[in-house]
Structures are given as C-alpha cells and as structure tokens.
Amino acid sequence: MVEVPRLRPEDAEAAVLVDVYAAGVSFPDLLMSHGRYQRKPPLPFVPGVEVAGVVASAPAGSGFRPGDRVAAFIRVGGWTDRVAVRPELTFPLPDAISFRSGAGMPMNYLTAHLALTRRGGLRQGETLLVHGAAGGLGTALLQAGRALGARVIGVVSTEEKAALARAAGAHETVLVDDWLADVRALVPGGVDVLADTVGGGRFLDSVRALGKEGRLLVLGFADGIATVAANRLLLKNVDVRGVAWGSLIEDEPAYPRHQWSEVSHWHAAGHIRPVDGAAYPLEQAADALRDLEDRRATGKITLTLREESGGPVVAEQNPNREAGTH
Ligand SMILES: NC(=O)c1ccc[n+]([C@@H]2O[C@H](COP(=O)([O-])OP(=O)(O)OC[C@H]3O[C@@H](n4cnc5c(N)ncnc54)[C@H](OP(=O)(O)O)[C@@H]3O)[C@@H](O)[C@H]2O)c1
C-alpha cells in the first residue's frame, strides 16, 4: 500500500473542503495514468479532475457555506472522500442536478462553452459537426451547440452510440466508416464549425469537411495527435484553432464562474441534460478507465463515493460488461 500525502493545513484554510459524493472519470485521467498527459503529477498520485458533493467548510468571502451542494474542478486528486478546492473552481450545483451528473459537468461543459462561444464563434443557424459525439465531451458539445442555435451533427462508431448521440441532442448522426461522404450529403457546402475530440487518422478529412471560413476546433486526441499541411488552410480559407480550457483558466481565474453561470442558464432553459454513463464504486476505478481506453464508454462515467442520500455505496453492474462487449 502506498501512502499519498494529504492536504497541508495551510492549503486547507484557503480552500473549500468538499465531501465527495461522485467523481468524474475523464480521458485526461486515463492519459495521466499512462504518463501521457501534458501535465505529469509526481508519483504516486490520486487521479480525478472533478467532483460533486457537499461543502464541509469554506473560507469567509468564498460565497459558500457548509451544507451547500457543489461541483468542482481540481485537476488531480478527486477520487477520494474529501477534497480541497480553490473557491473560484467551486460551482453551485442546482438541486435539480444529481451529484452523479454534476460530477461530470465542470470540465466537459465549460470546455464546450469555451470551444463554441469564444474560440469557435458558433452562430445561430450555423452547422456544427462533433467527433466522438457519444463521449463525455462530445455529448456536452452537442448540447452546447443546440443551446447556441446550431444544426448539430454527430460522428460516432456504432448504431448504439448514434442513438445515444441523437437522444443527447444531435439533429443527425453519421457513422465513422464513411463519415465524410455522409456529411457532404447532409451539408453540401461544408460545415461551419467542427469540434474534434478525436484527432488521429480522421484529421485531414476534418479539414476537407469544412465550408468556406469554417473553423476546426482541436479539442483532444483520443485517436492520437495529427498534423496538417498549411496550404490546405490557405486554399480553403479555413482556420484550425486550439482549445485548452485547463490552460486558459490559469490566466483568467474569474472566467469559469462566468461560464458556469451561462451553462446554468442553458440548463434552466432545458438545453443541457448531462448524459450519465456507467457509475462504478471507487474500488473499480481501473475498470472505469478501461472503458474509456477500449472505447466502450458512452456519456460520462463516474465513481460513486457516497449515495445521493448520504448512505453507503451500493455496487452497480456496468451494462457494457454485462453485455460482454469487450
Ligand atoms: N481541450 C480541452 O480543454 C479538453 C477538455 C476535456 C477533454 N479533452 C479531451 O477530449 C477528448 C475526449 O474526451 P472524453 O472525456 O469525451 O472521452 P470519451 O468519453 O472516451 O470520448 C472519446 C470518444 O472518442 C472516440 N474515439 C475515436 N478513436 C478513439 C480511440 N482510439 N480511443 C478512444 N476513443 C476514441 C470514441 O467515439 P467513437 O467510438 O464513437 O468514435 C469516444 O466516444 C480526450 O482527448 C480529452 O483529453 C480536452
């Protein structure tokens, strides 16, 4: 058994202490566990970039009180029973959102908000294409795109994922095998904004899928890092734009609260409905990571640390494993 250092008392004083009910399981957790993420925490470390739970204590002036329901982003260390969070990365969680749903919201929905508003400039009536549309970030992008009034198309690898993406918010879906031809049939002039969470082998076709002055948003590399020759951008009058929410909020600490307020309005208006994936007990966290790695995950996977009622955790079978799809 390896002991991981707990929080220092001086850090705890400035932080909101949160009793964790649910913790998100994210692709960055998977990459960090392999040492393949841009940030490499010193070993040993506790994974977990985001959580939802109840405030145990909060510094004066933070705006939070013990007992408040919150979601929070902490980068690393969330898979545990109590976390210390910077106040500006702690967000009020409406009663209508469960801890399970809330645990998957900060990173994905605030990244989707940044991508489509500020970086992508998505306008009402434009077309948005989303790769990995049944995944955690993908489903958030679909819903944020609808909230902004776009026509939203999802690219997915199976019919099951297509059904999930449509239920989550996609107007249309195409299967990955022949996705470029299918998208061209749906949108002959090309798409205005393409949100790419996958990269890898389909990146060049993503540039080809753009319409005039289209914007390709580089969000992630589930299938690896891609390159593109700059002449293709010139010839088509298109942009490739990077989106790194985690870096941007270091320079602009007040921005996430502003984003959370807009996302909360989207939720109140019915545009945002987090898509819950499988929920695992903490002891099965490695299985949760394997679901992401083996491309089995749909929606947002979480770990359950406490039941919504505050009672002990009751193990839930993962339907992917019951179905024997691995
Ligand atoms: N830029 C940012 O600020 C930011 C923030 C959060 C996350 N991210 C990144 O966004 C990406 C997606 O994260 P996520 O949490 O949405 O992950 P996820 O839930 O696992 O979804 C990723 C999707 O990618 C597709 N995919 C294609 N090739 C894959 C492969 N070789 N391995 C695994 N999946 C593959 C899968 O969809 P199909 O099977 O349908 O193809 C899968 O549903 C990650 O690279 C993550 O690091 C970036």
From TrEMBL:
Cited InterPro entries: ADH-like_C, ADH-like_N, ER, GroES-like_sf, NAD(P)-bd_dom_sf, Quin_OxRdtase/zeta-crystal_CS, Zn-ADH-like_protein
Residues covered by the Enoyl reductase (ER) domain: 2-303
Region (Disordered): 306-326
Entry-linked Pfam families: ADH_N, ADH_zinc_N
Designated name of the protein: NADPH:quinone oxidoreductase family protein
Organism in which the protein naturally occurs: Nocardioides dubius
Source taxonomy: Bacteria, Bacillati, Actinomycetota, Actinomycetes, Propionibacteriales
